[in-house]
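Researcher: Good morning. I'm working through a list of sequences from a screen, and I'd like to move beyond sequence-only analysis. For each chain I'm collecting a predicted structure so we can compare shapes side by side. This is the next one on the list. No need for commentary yet; just the structure.
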Amino acid sequence: MRAKISYVITAAVLVVYFVLVGSRGVLLIEAGTPLTVAFGIAVLILPVIGVWFLWKNTQFVRDANRLAAELEAEGGLPVDELKRLPSGRVDRDSADAVFARRKAETEAALDDWRSWFRLAVAYHDARDTSRARKAMQRAITLHRTSQ
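Model: Good morning. Structure tokens for this chain:
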């Protein structure tokens, strides 16, 4: 729940920032000189890219949460079997062992979105965020095509 609240607050701050930047771009365009119009257009492009990025991220999170809810309803969410250090951080060897099992499971069922979801969780636990995101994206795509 804390992550959702943080995400909503961050998104709201970004939207306010995009509006402020966009208004500056409009002011530059209204100045009317070729230089300020060029700068104004350039400044307006930044919020457009930012809004697109925020939208894609929000879609990704929503889709991943939907898959998690479906897996939970099926009883297929991965069990947290990771050993933890006294600090609370995940033990690297434990994460690597779970990752090896999840990878083998996924290689045996390349078209199963559930195995890709569990692989994404294993990547995340192993602190490989970019591969976790790609694996989750694959799970989302497979889920869409299976329906």
